[in-house]
Amino acid sequence: DAVFNNSEQDTWSYSFQTEKGQIIFISAISIEDNDGIKVSLIIDGKTFKQGSSNNDTTNYVTVSGTIPYN
């Protein structure tokens, strides 16, 4: 699904439950010049992985990982 934010203060989130050991990922891209994007995977309220880019409208920011067993 495409999500469009109108300002740098706008955020989007998606929550779901999954099993330990599952592989998860999220990708996002900025469509505006002079804009930045930050992508985070948060597990149990803690940042698990994150990535970001600035002024890049051609490359996706993708973060991925395997849900820890602990």
Question: Describe it for me?
Answer:
The mean pLDDT is 86. The protein is built from no helices and four strands. The chain has 70 residues and is mostly beta strands. Helices cover 0% and strands 41% of the residues. A hairpin with a 2-residue loop joins β2 (36-43) and β3 (46-54). A two-stranded antiparallel ribbon has the order 1-4. A two-stranded antiparallel ribbon has the order 2-3. The chain is elongated.
Largest sheet: 2 strands, antiparallel
The topology string of helices and strands comes to EEEE
Write out the strand line-up for the largest beta sheet, numbering strands in chain order. Answer: 1-4
Question: What fraction of the residues are assigned to beta strands by DSSP?
Answer: 35-45%
Which structural category fits the helices and strands?
Answer: mainly beta
Q: What is the number of helical segments per DSSP (H or I, 4+ residues)?
A: 0
The averaged pLDDT comes out at 86
Shape by Cα distribution = elongated
**Could you estimate the helical fraction of the residues in percent?**
under 10%
Instruction: State the end-to-end CA separation.
Output: 31 Å
Oligomeric composition of the shown chains: single chain
Low-confidence stretches: none
Tell me the number of strands. 4
Cα-atom Rg, whole angstroms?
13 Å
Task: Produce the secondary structure layout.
Layout: E1 23-28, E2 36-43, E3 46-54, E4 61-66
Antiparallel strand pairs: 1-4, 2-3
